[in-house]
Amino acid sequence: MARILGYIAASLDGLIATEDEDLDWLLQYDDMDLGEHDYRTFLKRIHTVVMGRGTYDFIARDPSPWAYGDKRVIVVTSRPIENPKGPLEVRSDVDALIRELRRLDDGDVWMLGGGQLQMAFLERGALDEIEIYIIPEMLGGGRPLFPLTGFRASPTLISAQVIDKGCVRLHYRF
């Protein structure tokens, strides 16, 4: 059974993007040394990437090449995607998608970006672990790591460590 994992950065005030979806605050940390927790190392154990429509649209607007070459990519949306940036599949039913993902046995699943979809998975007990990289920046407003929906949980801390440039890595199991 595939594990469904989160791997995401958030500002010190709990935001993943500014109100205008700007990530420049995060990109200034691109050269940070994450050692064994580097994004490229994490991505090697991922077979399937799941993202919401907002995350996909953000990635599609970026002029960079499609970053998920040999990965299976699923976008959760109810709207069709015209001229997709890369090879992908579309799903609209979160519950059916979770059942489908749980049947996979070819590698882990990455819940990419977007607090809204991550919260939908959390509310259904379908996010197994999450790595959160706290970046020492205060944005003052924007998109929250987890939207306030009334959902409550007490995840188990697997590890916490200070990493490069004053950032902290938190790893939780749900």
Question: Strands of the biggest beta sheet: in what spatial order?
Answer: 5-4-3-6-1-7-10-9
**CATH homolog superfamily:** Dihydrofolate Reductase, subunit A
Derived structural class: alpha/beta
Question: What is the name of the CATH architecture?
Answer: 3-Layer(aba) Sandwich
Order of helices and strands: EEHHEHEEHEHEEEE
Beta-strand percent range? 25-35%
Total discrete domains:
1
- Specify the biggest β-sheet: 8 strands, mixed
DSSP summary, beta strand count: 10
Please state the overall shape, judged from the principal axes of the Cα atoms. Answer: globular
CATH class equals: Alpha Beta
Euclidean distance between termini CA atoms: 16 Å
Please tally the helical runs, counting DSSP H or I stretches of 4 or more residues: 5
Mean pLDDT: 94
Measured as a percent range, the helix fraction is 10-25%
Uncertain segments are none
Description:
The protein has 174 residues and is of the alpha/beta class. It has one domain: Dihydrofolate Reductase, subunit A (3-Layer(aba) Sandwich). The protein is 21% helix and 30% strand. An 8-stranded mixed beta sheet has the order 5-4-3-6-1-7-10-9. Strands 2-8 form a two-stranded antiparallel ribbon. The longest helix is centred in the first third of the chain and has 9 residues.
List keywords for this structure.
single chain, 174 residues, alpha/beta, Dihydrofolate Reductase, subunit A, eight-stranded mixed β-sheet, two-stranded antiparallel ribbon, 5 helices, 10 strands, globular
Describe the secondary-structure layout.
Blueprint lengths: L3 E8 L3 E3 L6 H4 L11 H6 L1 E7 H9 L10 E5 L12 E3 L2 H9 L5 E5 L2 H9 L5 E7 L7 E2 L11 E7 L5 E6 L1
Parallel strand pairs: 1-6, 1-7, 3-4, 3-6, 4-5
Antiparallel strand pairs: 2-8, 7-10, 9-10
